[in-house]
Amino acid sequence: MKGTGLAKAGKPLARLPGRLQIYLMFPQFAALQSDASSLTGQILIAMPKMSDPRFSQSVIFLCAHTPEGAMGLILNRPLKTPKFADLLKQLGVGPQPPSREIRLCAGGPVDDNRGFVLHTTDWKTDGSLDVDGTHMLTASLDILKAVAEGGGPEKCLMALGYAGWGPGQLDGEILQNAWLNAQADDLLLFDGSYESKWQRAMGKLKVDPAMLSPEAGHA
Question: For a 10 Å CB count at each end of the chain, is N or C smaller?
């Protein structure tokens, strides 16, 4: 799936020229996500026997899931570098040091030169995309400046890269028992306890990972 360009409002995020930008992905999906079969706004939980090491024990927030494809952000792959303060310094965003910080994670194997700020709906700008009525993606430096100044949304994270699926691909993987799905909650999305996210996500379904096999059913 391809992005549709930069948000017009505010200055687009770029860590280095041409190297890191926040895009609004799939805004055309907004009108389609009321489909009862859509998993938009839910989490995907990798099955224990996930064969792709990039997604082993991953927990993914689905930002879009329609007949045109799906896009999500991996929640439990923290980035050691860059630190938020270093990123702001490279971007020329103040104050330095920031009054608040955003956790950074590797959002997926696709286009890791693209960044996404996922956040709660208590803050937004003209470039913010409503994902599910509870969470938003924002595509300008405005949110980083607001956070650095001690404001911005109550809860947020920044992901570099994303996980993407073509038409019907994710549905097929779910049918093949590669993924479980569950309702998202803000603690699971935004807390910093990365090492336990997969186990806690499984716990939402009252599932013991040791009891699952590749032939197990899905949620």
Answer: C
